[in-house]
Amino acid sequence: MPTEAESSVTPKYLQENELSQECKEVISTLPMERGWVASHLHQYQGFWHTTRQLQGVLSCQKHFKALDTDVLIVSTPKSGTTWLKAWTFSLLHRNQHDPNTQNQNHPLLFNNPHFLVPFLELDLYIDDNTLPDLTSLITSPRLFSTHLPYVSLPKSVQESACKIIYLCRDPKDAFISLWHFTNMLRPKSRGMNSLQEAFDKFCRGVSLYGPFWAHVLDYWQKSLSEPNKIMFMRFEEMKMKPRLVLQELATFVGCPFSKEEEEAGVVDHILKLCSFDNLSNLQVNKNGKLSSGEEHKAFFRCGQIGDCKNHLTAEMIQQLNTITQEKLAEHGLRF
Ligand SMILES: Nc1ncnc2c1ncn2[C@@H]1O[C@H](COP(=O)(O)OS(=O)(=O)O)[C@@H](OP(=O)(O)O)[C@H]1O
């Protein structure tokens, strides 16, 4: 058990108290496994959630009403969500906030991207008895995020014309990033998660919002059948051809860069503003904390492709490659 002091700094979605009656009843019917950080994971609609997070999932499924103009960032955990939030925020608000780093007033210089683009189930709807007042959001498009699998999205997201930007990453790097992140969040009294134990769980699909492969596959298939609704992105493409991917993203969300903007360097300004070096070295990201408890610096580790090689054995790499090949290759998806 975490100590009392540890519980008070544990993010809400990792706590197991203050559950609604409805959530308790749903949980009692669900398969359960031991969690990576919180004590338990529950399998709901085929995917794994921590106890309190599940309450956020149920609440946003019930209460969130998407508008046709909304933009929703959806990602598998540790795939570069923080980075994509920064890109999308600066892209959509470039007329109000000049992304040139000479502009000392840009909101990203003083706020972590997760504060500017909140998660539905982890932030806005985590407290069942305090629903967010979204009518006060006057900016359009409204920009939200979630890690929810397609099957669990609030119905209005699926049925409205809102846009979904989906981001995933090579599962080997996503796993290592998740392993580091969860070790940072684990109460000190529980020590570190063993790499082997976490790896076995990840391979079995028992990880936050896992199985990883089912999460990715559902969005991949939807992005093929509804390309105007879902844009499918990968961390590796953001790293390797950032200008092109950012331009495609701008077109997808309906605000392509004009020739004048291109010539004025707006694309490069956004890339520089949101770069790992720039964001991770800001005071707000070195010292700040989210209201949910995570330190901002926990979202910036190394931001590289292939860091898994520094942690996984050749056999582990082979094992993950084989699972990925078996589950995704026939659908035209490779990492
Ligand atoms: N600007 C920028 N550029 C490149 N990479 C970046 C950037 N910001 C965050 N990161 C890396 O993204 C990883 C964190 O993933 P997420 O942001 O998806 O985390 S979360 O799911 O929202 O908790 C984590 O990856 P790892 O470094 O491999 O752990 C971060 O370092």
From TrEMBL:
GO terms for cellular component: cytoplasm. InterPro entries: P-loop_NTPase (IPR027417), Sulfotransferase_dom (IPR000863). Keywords: Transferase. Its EC number is 2.8.2.-. One of its GO terms (biological process) is sulfation. It is an enzyme of class 2 (transferase). GO terms for molecular function: sulfotransferase activity. Residues 68-330 form the Sulfotransferase domain. Belongs to the sulfotransferase 1 family. This is Sulfotransferase. The lineage of its organism: Eukaryota, Viridiplantae, Streptophyta, Embryophyta, Tracheophyta. The gene is LOC100807092.
